[in-house]
Every structure is written in C-alpha cells, then in structure tokens.
Amino acid sequence: MTNPPSTPSTDTAPPLVHPSDRPTRLPAGETNAVGWTLGLIGDEWNLLILRYAMLGVRRYGIWRQELPISHAVLTRRLNVLTEMGMFERVEYQQKAKRFEYVLTRRGRDLWPVLLTIWAWESQWVPAHPERLPRMVHKTCGRTFLPTLMCAACGRPARARDVTGGFGPSGTWSRSVPAATTRRRSSSAEGAGMFPETMALIGNRWSAALLGAAFQGAHRFRDFEQRLGAPPTIISDRLRVFCDLGVFTQIPGSERADWQSYQFTDKGRAFYPVVMTAIDWGQRWFRAAEGPALVYTHRECGQDLQVQLTCDQCAGVLRGTEVLVENST
C-alpha cells in the first residue's frame, strides 16, 4: 500500500463549490466524505468557532471577544467555513458593509458531532484548561450524556454492536483529511476545549490509526499494512494513544512479545464521536462511486441509522432541545 498523499496547501481554499442546502458531489477517485469531514472537525479553531455559532454568535467581533484568536486566523477560518457551506455571509449594515456569518442547514446539522465531543471530553478528560459547560436536556430538565442508538430498531449501537468497513469510495488514501487550515497549536494561548479529541483526530495519521482500530486492527503490523505509514509514525501514534489511556498494551495471542493494542473503556467511549462524524459527512459529501464507509447494526441486521438519545429519559435528542449552562 502506498502512503496517502500529502494534505493540500494550508493557504488554499477548498477546490469544490459546497452548496449549503444540499450535499456536495465529490469527483470520482478523489478525497472522500471521511477526508472532507476530518479536514473540518480535525481543526480545533473550526470546532470552537462552530461551538459559539451554535450558541448564537454571528458577528466577527464577538468571536474575537470570546476566543484567543488572531485576526488573520479568524478571517481565514470563517472564509473556509463559508466556502464549505457551513455559514452564509449575510450583510447586516450597508453603510460600512458589515456582514454576519449565519449557520446554514449543513452547519446546524453538525450539532451531534459537537455534542459527542463535549460528552467524551467532559467524562474522560478531567483536566481542562477551561471549565466545560453543563448540557441539559430540555425535555426532562436533567443534565445528560448522549447515547448512540440505531434508529432502525431503537437499540444501542456500541462498537461491538456494529460491523462494516470501507464502501465503494473508501480507501485509506482517499480518507486523508482535506485540510485547508493549520490545526491550532497546543501551545496556543488559552488551550482549547477539546485537547484530547485533537490528539485523536487532529493529525491525519492519528485519525487513520483510530479508524483502523475500530475496523479491527490490533497489532503493530496490522496498522503498518493498512495505513502504509512509516514504522516511526506508527510507533509514535501508538505511544500517544497509550499515554492518553485510549489504548492498552497486552501480550499477543500468538507470541507474548507481539504486543496487541486494545481499546480501553475510554477509547471505546470515543465511538459515538466517530460515528456521528461519519454520519454527518456521508450525508453532506457524496462521492460518485458511493459511500466511503458502510455499517450494519448486528441487532437488527439493517444499515446503521445513527441516532442520539438522552441517557436520563431515553428521549431522542434534537439540537433545539439541548440547553447549555455555564458550570459554577
């Protein structure tokens, strides 16, 4: 297997036109839905800008006020997010030509991904530079965690409950993030709200290794063969995942000196982030050949239909029913 191509230039705009109200049609043989999705959510500034947009922020000055972000970085991210169909640029003042950035249907539809990232970080990453807000389900009035379910049968959809893998447009090389911006530096002022999420999906090799693990790869050789990455990169990513407590090393079943890398509870808990991101991506980015990934829910034997429910009342979650409250 050949190495994935390098990520596109960080200073260029997305090469496709992305309509905000209907799926983007992707050319055959090029970056698939997974790559486009990772290019978007694998950038922490994008996630932070979208998080505030979900809370009602529309104007440039408010983002500058709320985030430790430079003029150049914010301008570039807003331009890219607009070009990707996440925002619509709407003039609100004619005299001095000022614009608001209004979430489109595509942008609003990303809320399950942001919600599952928040839930995982709040439950599994105790040391945050910023205090995470509380999420309340308006229907039952209680703080909650989202539960990943199959909408076809109403049963849980944990990693062990789902089978599948690459579809017609799914290859490792085509799933490389179509990034157009540089990921926020971990040393940036006011470290972000999603530090460990970025360690898992903010690097193209990390994201690929995570995907391979959820597809059943366990040994060093498995990761090396599937990803086509240099051994030093595989070693480094495996070390990071173990340091984060996402993987644990156990002796191999064939030989004790062949280490096997298995998900911990923390690692398995990241599965809803992966599946909501794939679900969003494949609804909004459609390759000519077909989906990049296909999954079947073992319980009902049907294609997995991603749905989030409240762990307190079992009600189906909707973006308009999630209330954000600052922690005290």
Describe the structure in brief.
This protein has 328 residues and is α+β, with helices and mostly antiparallel strands.
How would you explain this protein's 3D organization?
By secondary structure, this protein is of the alpha+beta class. It has helices spanning 33-41, 44-54, 60-66, 71-83, 105-108, 111-124, 195-201, 204-214, 220-227, 231-243, 265-268, 271-284; strands at 24-26, 87-93, 98-103, 134-137, 142-143, 146-150, 155-156, 162-166, 247-251, 259-263, 285-287, 293-297, 306-310, 322-325. The protein has a domain at 24-190 and 265-325: Orthogonal Bundle (Arc Repressor Mutant, subunit A), CATH 1.10.10. 35% of the residues lie in helices and 19% in strands. The strands form six sheets. It has a three-stranded antiparallel β-sheet, with no helix packed on it. It has a three-stranded antiparallel β-sheet with strand order 7-6-13. Residues 1-13 and 180-191 have low confidence and may be disordered.
